[in-house]
Amino acid sequence: MIYVVGAGIAGLIAALFLNERGYEIEVLEKNKEIASSPCAEGCDIQSLKLLPLDFKPFISKKVDGIKISFHNKNFYVRMEGAVLKRKK
Hints:
Radius of gyration: 14 Å
Oligomer: single chain
Number of helices: 2
Strand content: 35-45%
Number of strands: 5
Distance between the termini: 22 Å
Helix content: 10-25%
């Protein structure tokens, strides 16, 4: 049994990756439900293509650009990206 601590996007991707390779996984999350927030739900398509799994079922919608907020500053980047279905 492998325990993954945290049901954030990194924990869920790690759990999915290990599960698809036959490991028994248990995801531990302090909250009763996985909360959906605007943070960490987007990714560029080129990075998703590097994942060793089919990412298409986890895409909510595709986008042509992203807005990055950092220390009260906003940056806009034009690139092919996706909004992820975090709860899935």
